Amino acid sequence: MRNHQTTLISLSLLPVLVLLLSNTATPANAQQPQLTTDFYRTTCPNVESLVRSAVQAKFRQTFVTAPATLRLFFHDCFVRGCDASIMLASSNGQAEKDHPDNLSLAGDGFDTVVRAKAAVDSNPQCRNKVSCADILALATRDVVNLAGGPFYQVELGRRDGRFSTIASVQRSLPGPDFNLDQLITIFAKHGLNITDVVALSGAHTIGFSHCSRFSKRIYNFSPRSRIDPTLNPQYALQLRQMCPIKVDPRIAINMDPATPNTFDNAYFRNLQGGRGLFSSDQVLFTDSRSRAAVNLFASSNVAFSQAFVQAITKLGRVGVLTGNRGEIRVDCTRPN
């Protein structure tokens, strides 16, 4: 496994990075959960190695493990907070995972958490001591690192939610056609700022999307232009070749056409060249308010890694259940 290496940032980039990251503090009125990196030091001291071994085994089977788990964490935290409610199943199809916005979540993400939970509970000292929410957070860090991204300390101490409703997903997740104002608004609800928007969007450096999520950009953008003018023309034609007008739901397109299996800053260089797959990706470069962050991250993988770690750590604090709230699920797919 590749560990994150500390690298000095070019002095010419430092002032810009300081400016971008100076507004990353959580708002004073936001919830301050009691999460710590050593939460399980006495109850399950080897929890991280247990989770990591299970995640590594799954990752060796399929690379999809990485983007699927990362996306699962994002979708979980953005809806009811980071409480693993996305994992809960229902007999009547009315859980979070049943919402149309979640139906495209790859099964490998769910399977990664289930396997890691089983690995943790196979240790008698740890059995039923570690929440599914914390296992998902740890697994997310591990897949990022396995794909070539940074290794970072994960805050722990979350408890699992008991509820999961399809209605709670409504208007909770950013859409592929969001403009920057919409992105800023939906992220701000969780104490995340514009730099966090750009950094977390960098997760699209791995993973794939189905044609239906962006086909309007290449076939029917507007009465004046069938192709989105912010798209690189050559890239648009390539997408047309891969995605026929009659959308085939089985076709998947890499989010990052340059290095699709590496967690790196190529995503931002793609945006500079008009190769953002979603409108919500490309707008980060076309809008002057976020362009400086895109340019910085495109020029420095270190700057991107630092901003991503800070943003995903903040995301991991959203709406968490701690103390006596929530529970430690025996089975991640159903409440106790």
TrEMBL record:
Q: Matching CDD domains, A to Z? A: secretory_peroxidase
Q: Where is the active site?
A: 75
The protein's required cofactor(s) are namely:
heme b; Ca(2+)
Q: Which residues bind Ca(2+) 2?
A: 205, 256, 259, 264
Signal peptide range in chain numbering: 1-30
What are the disulfide bonds?
Answer: 44-126, 77-82, 132-332, 211-243
Q: Where in the cell is it found?
A: Secreted
Domain of life, per lineage? Eukaryota
List its EC numbers.
1.11.1.7
Reaction(s) catalysed by this chain, per the record, are: 2 a phenolic donor + H2O2 = 2 a phenolic radical donor + 2 H2O
Binding residues annotated for heme b, in chain numbering: 204
Q: Where is this site: Transition state stabilizer?
A: 71
InterPro entries named in the record: Haem_peroxidase, Haem_peroxidase_sf, Peroxidase_pln, Peroxidases_AS, Peroxidases_heam-ligand_BS, Secretory_peroxidase
Checking SUPFAM superfamilies in the record gives: Heme-dependent peroxidases
Cite the GO molecular-function annotations of the record. Answer: heme binding; lactoperoxidase activity; metal ion binding
- Plant heme peroxidase family profile domain: residues covered: 34-336
Q: Give the residues the record marks as binding substrate.
A: 174
Q: Can you quote the record's cofactor note? A: Binds 1 heme b (iron(II)-protoporphyrin IX) group per subunit. Binds 2 calcium ions per subunit.
What is the protein's known function?
Answer: Removal of H(2)O(2), oxidation of toxic reductants, biosynthesis and degradation of lignin, suberization, auxin catabolism, response to environmental stresses such as wounding, pathogen attack and oxidative stress. These functions might be dependent on each isozyme/isoform in each plant tissue.
Under PANTHER family, the record lists: PEROXIDASE 16-RELATED, PTHR31517
Q: What is this protein called?
A: Peroxidase
Q: Which organism is it from?
A: Sesamum indicum
The encoding gene:
LOC105155705
